[in-house]
Amino acid sequence: MLGPVILAASRSDRMRRLISAAPVTKQVVDRFIPGETVSDIVPIIKDLTGKGLQLTMDVVGEDITTPAQAEGARDAYLALIDHLKDLELGEKVEMSVKLSMFGQALEGGHELALANVRPVVEAAAAIGTTVTLDAEDHTTLDSMFAIHEELRKDHPGTGCVIQAYLFRTEADAKRLAEAGSRVRLVKGAYKEPAEVAYQQKHEIDKAYVRILKTLMDGEGYPMIGSHDPRLISIAQELAHKAGRKLDEYEFQMLYGIRGDEHLRLAAEGHRMRVYTAYGTDWYGYFMRRLAEKPANLRFFLRSMVSKG
Fold first, then answer.
1. Residue 282: what pLDDT?
2. 134 an active-site residue?
3. CA distance 275 to 161
4. Which residue in 58, 74, 118, 134 is the catalytic one?
5. What is the mean pLDDT of the chain?
6. What is the CA radius of gyration of the chain?
7. End-to-end CA distance of the chain
8. Following DSSP, what letter does each residue of 238-256 receive, concatenated?
9. Is 182 annotated in the active site?
10. Residue tagged active-site, from 74, 118, 182, 184
11. How many CB atoms lie within 10 A of CB 87?
């Protein structure tokens, strides 16, 4: 399986330098990350929302080594919110944040991440939207869930992400499937050991369906993070069986992947939210997109060969 190899490469400084230096890389990266600055991304936001799509915005960057860098990540999101305020799109554009960007891995990281993310959540609420806390590797999740619970005391619409490949997630889903909760379910995109996570695709897919049923049968708001046609069809069936209306759940897919499907689902009346990342520190995000799906890797390699 190439996925684990690519994920290992995402942590390699040598591979970062090699891939970043390849002439074709920027062209391919632009497929997944359509801009580096807020000014770059505003036309994308206007275009996608004009087509009936919703968005969740991610300012990419994970290698935070100082509190000052964590504050810089906070400020980048606050700058994004300032621009969103002028667009007056409300909940059509929310934000996704990785707590590692807010200092979670530093000394005193739990408190630091909470202190940095809180003003972002507050500013988002002030313009009528919200924030979802992305899941990272399994060692960070207890902290993430604790921060999520704390933020929801004042801002109950704060969402979180759970990952189907982790053994713990079925229990997490049962706990989170409560009234007012917003939970995005993804398969998982980090290299996790066999002691904590399923390793085979068919096992992950079965876990995904079990967890999704729990969320659909619960009282919260499920967000289906998948590009898999079979899982999308199953999600629709589970929503129907649970008696959910079209505005009581949503689909989420990545910018640059299956764009026609985004538009098809929106045209059918589904809430379809596009996960749209921007920024200069794109390497880790880009490598996980390659690891998630062989077609993404083939696209990258074909581009390198054709442009080399």
1. 62
2. yes
3. 13
4. 134
5. 88
6. 18
7. 26
8. HHHHTT--GGG-EEEEETT
9. no
10. 184
11. 14
